[in-house]
Write a structure and sequence with these properties.
globular; about 120 residues; two-stranded antiparallel ribbon; mainly alpha; about 60% helix; 2 domains
Length: about 120
């Protein structure tokens, strides 16, 4: 009977292990969901050519926020993505937060359901 109990426990362990292996990819996908529109656009359209090493290299081309945004404009045009100003801002912001840390020229305010705008441009 003791052998049967060990066999059952072993079988249960295998079943549990198999269940975890099946569930882990779904968990990883759920955790890897983009946290911003900029991240989603970057991961959908850019990451195939632009690896993490590109942003960490010593001789960066994106030396400030203005240059970073200009580079995002350049490459989205090169790929004929037809991004809006808000899309370019979101991708540049994602890259800046993840890799660069350049100071922004002014606070960007995000309104629910609307693209981010500069606080000064909203008028009053």
């Amino acid at each position: 009977m003791a052998g049967h109990a060990a066999l059952t426990a072993s079988g249960l362990g295998r079943a549990l292990g198999a269940a975890l292996l099946v569930g882990l990819p779904a968990l990883a996908i759920a955790q890897a969901a983009p946290s911003s529109r900029g991240q989603l656009l970057y991961e959908t359209h850019c990451i195939a050519c632009h690896t993490t090493q590109m942003h960490w290299r010593a001789n960066r081309i994106a030396t400030d926020w203005t240059r970073l945004k200009a580079l995002v404009w350049r490459w989205q045009a090169e790929q004929q993505l037809r991004w809006s100003d808000a899309d370019v801002d979101e991708v540049a912001r994602h890259l800046n937060e993840r890799f660069y840390g350049h100071p922004l020229p002014g606070p960007l305010v995000s309104r629910a359901g609307a693209p981010p705008v500069r606080a000064a441009a909203r008028g009053g």
